[in-house]
Amino acid sequence: MMIAIGNFLFHFRNLLFPLFYVALFIPSLGIFQSYKVAALVGFAVCLVGQGIRILTIGLTYIIRGGSKRRIYAKDLVTTGMFAHCRNPLYIGNILVLLGIGIMANSLMFLLTVVPFFLFAYHAIVLSEENYLLGRFGDQYREYMQDVGRWIPNLSGLGETLGSMGFKWKRVIIREYNATFIWVAGALIVFMKNVHSVNTALFNRILPYSITFFSLLAVLYSTVRYLKKSKKLKDE
User: Fold this and answer.
1) In whole angstroms, what is the distance from residue 132 CA to residue 202 CA?
2) pLDDT band at 204, cuts 50/70/90?
3) Domains annotated on the chain, with CATH
């Protein structure tokens, strides 16, 4: 049952994130009394999640998009961060999601949306594992025994980092879009909270926020152009 649900969610996973952003703006009780504390804690959690994704992709890239919106893997990747956790990219996604919810200071989001996404990711992972077991058999079964699904084993992490080259170009190419989306979303959520508490402060910092967003959009457009024109290629 969970595998069937996971296959369904994997196929339609790109439709889930717009719902996630809508949920950020539903009125809710706060998590913290101060939106500033919520912003600092939430942004810190986002940075940890983004850091995990950067580290994972920079060391070893794995295609999570599947083929034709179906789960697919050409090779079994067990190096880099995948030697310490089977799903580091999903852990990074969950932390970014959690961080944005904290920044929104929305108790409703943390009690409803975050658990739903945890369930969705778990179902998708189970369906991926079912596929990988069918494709790679004992090789993947041994990997499952050695490496945890969700809880990272940091033993030997220093050796992993020291023995592998880090691909910054790959990180930029693969992460620019997702990073732009969550940073822009974080900015909008923060400004919404400021406006709800202090209109005068909102008006004072609005020009700076617009400037920051404009610079972010220019950076995004530049990387996108370099990627599409193949002037920026994966190493």
Assistant:
1) 50
2) very high
3) 2-165 (1.20.120.1630)
CA dist 209 and 203 (Å) reads: 10
CA distances from 193 to 8, 100, 129, 196 (A): 35, 12, 40, 5
Give the separation between CA 19 and CA 15, rounded to whole angstroms.
7
Q: Quote the CA–CA distance of 59 and 82 in Å, as a whole number.
A: 9
How confident is the prediction for the chain on average, in pLDDT? Answer: 89
Joined together, the tokens standing for residue 13 give 């996973």
Closest CA to 95 of 21, 44, 148: 44
Give me the phi and psi of 86, to 5 degrees please.
Answer: -75, -20
For residue 196, CA distances in Å to 105, 174, 201, 208, 234 come to: 12, 35, 10, 18, 43
* Residue linked to tokens 């999601």: 97
Tokens of 210: 């617009």
Dist. CA 151–CA 156, nearest whole Å: 15
Render pLDDT for 157-201 as a digit per residue (tens, 0 to 9): 888 888 788 899 999 999 999 999 999 999 999 999 999 999 999
